[in-house]
UniProtKB/TrEMBL annotation:
It comes from the Bacteria. Residues 8-65 form the HTH lysR-type domain. This is Glycine cleavage system transcriptional activator. GO terms for molecular function: DNA-binding transcription factor activity; sequence-specific DNA binding.
Length: 286
């Protein structure tokens, strides 16, 4: 006698996993591109073959049965392993992968970490500058760098670094001054999502003045002004690590302003193989 569990159609199991994960036949139909009737039919066939109800049908929807709730984690894990292994072994090996990033992150974080990086034989990495307003554009193909908390429904996401802000300046600007007098120096303002001098004052108790008379909308431009001695910049410490190491800039305070937000590398499923993603995160993320 044949085992009823033998040769279970994968599309039945997939329909169950999506519906169970989303808690709705309608939502499962939307994710899979099938009709609600097709999802219901496949799950019904699966229940008949297994001889157990996986869902409890109610007038306003469905809920997992005890058996369905117990089985779902195993099915989700199994399908995830199958998908990951197939991407790893047979995924599309794109000959060109685009990475979208702000100019500042590309110049000060990514580019210094590219030596020796390879995503496969003859795979070309193409870097394109991304404006802040376009960071959350899902239509961009490839890998994107986004600033935020990382709380996005995106399959691939990895934090580049822990964001910490601190005041920095050119050494010449401090020449002849006592270390604590840095707060009297001109300040450089930076527009955008990062915290600024107001948050620094609230965190450290330092005076919120002087008000910055120079303000930039890109970190790279603000950093160039700081290097030239135009003022004190509240900078992302990870992005100025090379400038601090070379003494182009000096850190003016041991206080720091940590941020819950940071830069993240994100990609939709199918944009690259799992192996390529792992290689990128190893090279670029801390």
């Amino acid at each position: 006698m044949d085992n009823p569990l033998s040769n279970l159609p994968l599309d039945w199991i997939h329909a169950f996993e999506v519906a169970g994960r989303l808690g709705s036949f309608t939502a499962a139909a939307q994710e899979t591109g099938l009709t609600q009737a097709a999802i219901s039919q496949r799950i019904g066939h699966l229940e008949t073959r297994l001889g157990v109800a996986l869902f409890i049908r109610k007038p306003r929807g469905v809920v997992l049965s005890v058996e369905g709730e117990a089985w779902l984690p195993y099915v989700t894990h199994a399908l995830g392993t199958l998908r990951q292994s197939s991407e790893e072994l047979f995924g599309i090996q794109r000959k060109r992968l685009t990475i979208w990033s702000s100019a500042s992150v590309l110049e000060h974080w990514i580019a210094p970490r590219l030596a020796g990086l390879s995503l496969g034989e003859d795979v070309q990495l193409s870097f394109k500058t991304l404006m802040l307003a376009s960071e959350d554009n899902p239509q961009l193909r490839g890998v994107r760098l986004r600033y935020g908390s990382g709380d996005w429904n995106i399959p691939h996401r990895a934090r580049l670094f822990d964001e910490v802000l601190a005041p920095v300046a050119a050494p010449a600007l401090m020449r002849g001054l006592e270390p604590e007098r840095w707060q009297d120096l001109p300040r450089i303002g930076l527009s955008g999502p990062r915290m600024g001098w107001h948050e620094w004052a609230a965190q450290t108790g330092d005076a919120p003045t002087p008000i910055p008379l120079l303000r930039f909308d890109t970190f790279t431009a603000a950093l160039s002004a700081a290097r030239a001695g135009a003022g004190v910049l509240l900078a992302s410490v990870p992005l100025v690590e090379r400038a601090l190491a070379s003494r182009e800039l000096i850190r003016l305070s041991e206080d720091a302003l940590p941020s819950e937000n940071s830069y993240w590398m994100v990609a939709e499923r199918g944009e690259l193989t799992q192996r390529q993603w792992n290689t990128l995160t190893t090279a670029i993320c801390t």
